[in-house]
Automatic annotation (TrEMBL), chain A:
InterPro entries: AAA+_ATPase (IPR003593), ABC_Ni/Peptide_Import (IPR050388), ABC_transporter-like_ATP-bd (IPR003439), ABC_transporter-like_CS (IPR017871), Oligopep_ABC_C (IPR013563), P-loop_NTPase (IPR027417)
Entries under Pfam families matching the protein: ABC_tran, oligo_HPY
Annotated keywords: ATP-binding, Cell membrane, Membrane, Nucleotide-binding, Transport
Protein name per the record: ABC transporter ATP-binding protein
Family listed: Belongs to the ABC transporter superfamily.
Membrane topology value: Peripheral membrane protein
Superkingdom of origin organism: Bacteria
Subcellular localization(s) per the UniProt record: Cell inner membrane
GO MF annotation terms: ATP binding
Alphabetical list of PROSITE patterns matching this protein: ABC_TRANSPORTER_1, ABC_TRANSPORTER_2
From TrEMBL, chain B:
Main location: membrane
Name of the protein in question: ABC transporter permease
Transmembrane segment boundaries: 99-121, 133-155, 175-195, 238-260, 280-306
Cross-referenced PANTHER family: DIPEPTIDE TRANSPORT SYSTEM PERMEASE PROTEIN DPPB-RELATED
One Pfam family here: BPD_transp_1
Coiled coil regions, renumbered to chain: none
Family: Belongs to the binding-protein-dependent transport system permease family.
Lineage top rank: taxon: Bacteria
UniProt topology in membrane: Multi-pass membrane protein
Length: 607, 313
């Protein structure tokens, strides 16, 4: 806090409890910090740190989730003097909410009421707080939509939320929060659910609005890279307590507390792998340094050869549910994965990277192309042989809670592939399962537990153990670490790299996170609108990107370094067009130009 | 528009299947129409002659064609028990039953929606427990039990309402409503319990959605948040369940109308079944199926009005 300035918000000894089945559960134990007018304070922490509870308390919305502010003061400077929000009556709170403090949330897809028009949702706050007439409120809504740079604002007012894209909805939500010119904007993970280019647009929008209106921002996030890009000051939280607080440069350059240091160490920073030939495990504080590290795979020949893979999904419509169009999910994609190598497929949502992974396993049936695993044609196999072939290629999914059966003990789930493929019998099964638990560094006592008794990272280890059970040659990891907290993500990534070094497994690593991809992969392929637009060694693609899309994607990635602020004041990326094409549409074949040995860039133009 | 057209087409297809099944099943039953008319002791030659006249010796498909043709053109045949044309008889009874079905649906919705919302707003508190227990009581007891209880209370003890009989609403609307009220209540209690639970479940889901939090963060009052933002989203699902319950109500009226001696569709179908009045049974099943489907079509059309997401697809 700069000296001599009255804080806008001053939180003192906040304590929030939730009603649990066996007495109260502490959500926030003891937190104090303040926000100056016009300042951006980032509260950062992993899940369960209490960062969202703190922001909801400031709006007194925490009560609707079963929480109770049991102690502390939440002082907010209003025009008429300072108010303690913790003691304020409902009428005062209603006058503050949406009027003096605006708030935006994580999920733009569900933040808007699906059955009301954008106009109704944008104007009801204005009419209530400002007493505006319908026309005046409508004019103000239009002005706001222009301010957040939504194209065709007049038309948007008449539309319903489902007619807008995710990025546009988040802009509407921000416009709604800005409607009454609040002095504080609380943004609770506002970009977590968004693609990286849209995230960059939203972050730059918040930055611009902040500068134009002089409002303060309380920014809640788990993402250190976002913190580095937007924060003036940082508050680090852990398990309901404030761990460390300071200016952003200070926190990143000289973190004082061990937890902050551990958190920062676990964050991969785009660009830090420059000049390194092989993936490198993340340095985890307090872990031994003698890890097995993957090396650049010697030329040991290809394991997986994918050529001209095309997958289309029919769009059904009309009276008789006939196919009226096709989604071109994967369009003429070719690549090779060598033994012991990790190829990363990156791209934004809907680019076809997951469909590509599923098509290789034939979990989605490809339309055409060939997939050779160890020279064996996967697409030509009958059902029985395909099932056998799956022993060589396994998949790890994003959400370990959804991919584990809640009614089965973990040992049974890891044993399933062993018995399914007849790989072990009798007491050998338990021995093998125990060995797999050791391998993924889970205590053997976990074997008799159920999925809900484990944390997210532990569950993902179980999913990996299950995939390893059949000793696969290839593991397709589809956003396998995206749902995990950074420190846990780092552990799981390190585990995967270790397994690769030890067992010579190849990975197809599907991810949207460029910094993680840079850390773990030997080679990188970038997907856009179903096509592979660029592929090459990690250094080639990340350090000298050639395709226009790769470049714009990389420019949008926030870097976890406050000294390298890349999020400008006004970022606008071209929206990704629809992959739906009429029946009979003949897509042009993918033609590549080899700009360097092994570095291919798509030269086919998109239509 | 194609959405509604789609619904109408699928409804016509279902109706055709129902008509075929009804016709087939009633033909498999032992004893045909000629036997019903002449009695089991009749002269075999006379019986054969009557069969020939009625066309019962024609192939089944031809008989079905004749019957469905008649149904579509308004010639529904003659009832064997009542010895009169079925069409006007069915229409009159359908009006009578329509009155109690509509009345019970209205009573159920008017009570269930506020109760369900009330419970959802106070999850796991006494309001929720009270509403859930009442709903459980409502669904676990059969409707004829409620019928008997209602007769005992309102007719026998309090003498407020008549315990039985039917009055045509065109003759005396008020009296007709008085006669329809108790059977409608007996039908509506179970339905109300069902809809309360449904409303509670739907609203609980909706109130946990992010847009509700956004509405609160805008500073809107709790009343607006729950009754406008929340309920607008619950209308569709609740309406759909209510529409499906119309079928269940037409099943229940057989017992309830007999209990209250209310001469509607249920009572008529029951008489038809007792006396093996095959033309009457066939026509009744067809008409009930058509009415239930029309009610659901109405729900589908209303759904388009309350949920903009359906309009596009």
């Amino acid at each position: 806090m700069p000296d001599g300035q009255t804080p806008l918000v001053s939180i003192e000894n906040l304590r929030v409890e939730f009603q649990g089945e066996d007495g109260p559960i502490v959500g926030v134990e003891d937190v104090s910090f303040s926000i100056a007018p016009g300042e951006t304070v980032c509260v950062v922490g992993e899940s369960g740190s209490g960062k969202s509870v703190t922001s909801l308390s400031l709006m007194r919305l925490v009560e609707f989730g079963g929480g109770r502010i049991v102690d502390g003061r939440l002082e907010f400077a209003r025009d008429g003097g300072v108010v303690d929000v913790a003691q304020a009556d409902p009428d005062t709170m209603q006058a503050i909410r949406g009027n003096e403090i605006g708030m935006i949330f994580q999920e733009p897809m569900t933040s808007l009421n699906p059955v009301f028009t954008i106009e109704r949702q944008m104007t009801d706050g204005l009419r209530m707080h400002r007493g505006l007439s319908a026309e005046a409120a409508r004019a103000r809504a239009l002005e706001l939509l222009r301010q957040v740079r939504i194209p065709e604002p007049e038309r948007r007012l008449k539309q319903y939320p489902h007619e807008l894209s995710g990025g546009m909805r988040q802009r509407v939500v921000i416009a709604m929060a800005m409607a009454c010119e609040p002095r504080l904007l609380i943004a609770d993970e506002p970009t977590t659910a968004l693609d990286v280019t849209i995230q960059a647009e939203i972050l730059s929008l918040i930055n611009r609005l902040k500068r134009e209106t002089g409002m303060a921002v309380l920014f809640i996030t788990h993402d250190m890279a976002v913190v580095a890009q937007v924060a003036d000051r940082v508050v680090v939280m852990y398990r309901g307590n404030l761990v460390e607080e300071g200016p952003v440069q200070e926190i990143f350059a000289h973190p004082k507390e061990p937890y902050t240091r551990a958190l920062l160490a676990a964050v991969p920073r785009l660009g830090e792998m420059r000049g390194k030939s092989a993936p490198e495990p993340l340095r985890l504080v307090g872990e031994d340094e003698h890890r097995l590290t993957p090396t650049a795979p010697a030329e040991r020949g290809p394991l997986l050869e994918v050529s001209h893979l095309t997958t289309r999904f029919p769009v059904k419509g009309g009276l008789f549910r006939r196919t009226v169009a096709n989604v071109h999910a994967v369009e003429d994609v070719s690549f090779v994965i060598n033994r012991g190598e990790t190829l990363a497929l990156v791209g934004e949502s809907g680019c076809g990277k997951s469909s590509c992974g599923r098509s290789i396993l034939r979990l989605s049936q490809p339309t055409s192309g060939t997939v050779l695993l160890d020279k064996r044609d996967i697409l030509g196999l009958n059902d029985r042989d395909l099932r056998r072939a799956w022993a060589d290629m396994q998949m790890v999914f994003q959400d370990p809670f959804a991919s584990l059966n809640p009614y089965m003990r973990l040992s049974e789930q890891v044993a399933e592939p062993l018995t399914n493929y007849g790989l072990a019998r009798g007491s050998e099964v338990q021995d093998r399962v125990a060995g797999l638990f050791d391998r993924v560094q889970l205590p053997r006592s976990f074997m008799s537990r159920f999925p809900h008794e484990l944390s997210g990272g532990q569950r993902q280890r179980v999913a990996i153990a299950r995939a390893l059970a059949v000793r696969p040659k290839l593991i397709i990891a589809d956003e396998a670490v995206s749902a995990l907290d950074v420190s846990v993500q780092a552990q799981v990534l390190n585990l995967m790299m270790e397994l690769q070094a030890e067992l010579d497994i190849s990975f197809l690593f599907i991810s949207h996170d460029m910094a993680v991809v840079e850390r773990v992969s030997h080679r990188v392929g970038v997907m856009y609108r179903g096509r592979l637009v660029e592929i090459g060694d990690r250094a080639q693609v990340m350090e000298s990107p050639q395709h226009a899309y790769t470049r714009s994607l990389l420019s949008a990635v926030p870097i976890a370094d406050p000294a390298r602020r890349t999020i400008g004041e006004d970022m606008n990326f071209r929206p990704i067009p629809s992959p739906v094409f009429p029946i009979g549409h003949e897509a042009a074949p993918s033609v590549y130009e080899e700009v360097a040995p092994g570095h291919l860039v798509l030269s086919t133009a998109f239509d | 528009m194609s959405y509604i057209l789609n619904r109408i087409l699928s409804m016509l297809l279902t109706l055709f299947l129902i008509s075929a099944i009804t016709f087939a099943v009633t033909n498999i039953l032992p004893g045909d129409v000629a036997m019903m008319i002449m009695g089991t002791q009749s002269n075999p030659e006379a019986l054969a002659g009557l069969r020939e006249t009625l066309g019962l010796n024609d192939p089944l498909l031809a008989q079905y064609g004749r019957w469905i043709g008649g149904m579509l053109t308004g010639d529904w045949g003659t009832s064997l028990v009542f010895k009169e044309p079925i069409a006007p008889l069915l229409i009159q009874k359908m009006t009578a039953s329509g009155l109690i079905v509509l009345l019970s649906m209205t009573i159920a919705l008017v009570c269930a929606v506020p109760l369900g919302v009330w419970a959802a707003v106070h999850p796991n508190r006494w309001q929720d427990t009270a509403s859930s227990s009442a709903a459980l009581l409502g669904v676990s007891l059969p409707d004829f039990f409620w019928g008997i209880m209602l007769i005992l209370l309102f007719a026998r003890a309090l003498h407020w309402l008549p315990s039985s009989g039917f009055v045509d609403p065109r003759e005396d609307l008020l009296l007709a409503l008085r006669h329809a009220l108790l059977p409608a209540l007996a039908l509506g209690l179970g339905l109300m319990a069902h809809l309360t639970r449904m409303t509670r479940a739907t609203m609980t889901g909706i109130l946990n959605q992010e847009f509700i939090r956004v509405a609160r963060a805008k500073g809107l009052g709790e009343g607006t948040v729950v009754w406008r933002y929340g309920l607008a989203n619950a209308v569709g699902p609740v309406m759909t369940v209510a529409g499906l319950q119309v079928g269940y109500l037409f099943g229940s009226i057989i017992v309830i109308e007999s209990l209250f001696n209310y001469t509607g569709m249920g009572w008529l179908t029951y008489q038809g079944l007792l006396n093996r009045d095959i033309p009457l049974i066939q026509a009744s099943v067809f008409v009930i199926a058509a009415v239930v489907m029309l009610a659901n079509l109405l729900v589908d059309i209303l759904y388009v009005l309350v949920d903009p997401r359906i309009r596009l697809s």
